[in-house]
Structure formats: C-alpha cells, structure tokens
Amino acid sequence: MIVFMFAMLLHPECQLKAQKEIDSVVGSSRLPSFEDRGKLPYLDHIGLKDYFWRWKPVLPLGIPHRSTEKDVYRGMHIPKGSIVVPNVRGMSLDESVYHNPKSFYPERFLPQPLGHGEPHFASSAFGYGRRICPGLHLAENSLWIAIATILATCNITNTLDEHGNIIVPECVMSEGADCHPIDFEYIVRSRSSAAEAQLNEDTDLN
C-alpha cells in the first residue's frame, strides 16, 4: 500500500483520472464495492497491475524455488535440487514487452486505441505455478477495495516546506530481498465533508 501512496504523490494526474472514473461510476452517495470493479478499468490498472505488480515490485527476486527433478528450459539444463530465483525486476522492466517500462503508466494495459494493450504482469509477489500463494485473490481484492475507498474519499498530496514549496519525494527504493520507498511524508485529506461522513458511516469509525 505504501508504494501506491508513493505513486500517487509522484503522479497526481493518475490520481485525478482514477477519481473521475470512480465519481462517474459510483457517485458520491456510497463507497465503491466489488460490483463496481468491472466498470472501473483505469482504477484496476492503477491500483494493481502497474504499481503493485510491475512498476516497483516489492519482491524484485520473487520467491526462490528448488527443482524436484532435473529439467531443461530453453536449452538450459537445471539439475535436480537447484535453487531457481526468478528475476522479477528484469521481467517487469523488459523493454521488449513494455514501452518505456520504468515509467508509471497505467494506460499501458488498456486495449488500443485507449492504451498500448500491453500484457498484464504476473503477480510475482505470490510466487508461480502449483505452489503459488493460495491467499493471492484475498490479498488482491483487499488491496483493490482499500485503494478504491481511499481514492473515492481522500486526496493524497505532498507536504510543504517552511517556505510553502511542495516537497516531491525522490523516486528511490530500498535495496534487498524486499523493496519499499525510502521514508517520505505525505498528507491524506478527505475530498469533502460528505466523503468524510460517508467513510465514517460505512466503516463505523464513530
């Protein structure tokens, strides 16, 4: 989720576009629900496909696996018992697959002419194949509804320095087995008093 906040600070135009899509489909009298998901393609791309899976993968080397039998993959011999480490970052930034891969561009997944029609990047954070994490769909749905609710009710903005200038965080991630943005500050404010009241009512915060 912190990578999502990071992306919204660096790309406020994407935040605004997603909010407009939510407003046109959901309106202001209720919060988004899973029934709305099929009508919110841009939110789906901004919320999961580009930021979470592809743009800044939290596990750049995925989850290592050990081969139970010897195998041959594209002419490469893999002995039994080998530790196989997927180069997730290399795949997610593959220039032969993704146009300008280091940029955060949710429209890349939309079909032409709305976007580039690029393939959805696999959910590398949950592994691959038969041993993929069974909690994948629960985690993905939880992220989607949280992001949809945040964008429907709140604005994510940069902080200001002592002179009133906007502080834009550097696009720097930590290095290691898991990656996250280097510490940064941001502000979350309700989009309106009605949005705040709706959020409080639907989440029983009062």
TrEMBL record:
Heme binds at residue 133. The keyword Metal-binding applies. It holds the Pfam family p450. Keywords: Heme, Iron, Metal-binding, Monooxygenase, Oxidoreductase. Pathway: Secondary metabolite biosynthesis. Its cofactor is heme. The keyword Manganese does not apply. GO terms for molecular function: heme binding; iron ion binding; monooxygenase activity; oxidoreductase activity, acting on paired donors, with incorporation or reduction of molecular oxygen. Belongs to the cytochrome P450 family. This is Cytochrome P450. It comes from Mycena venus.
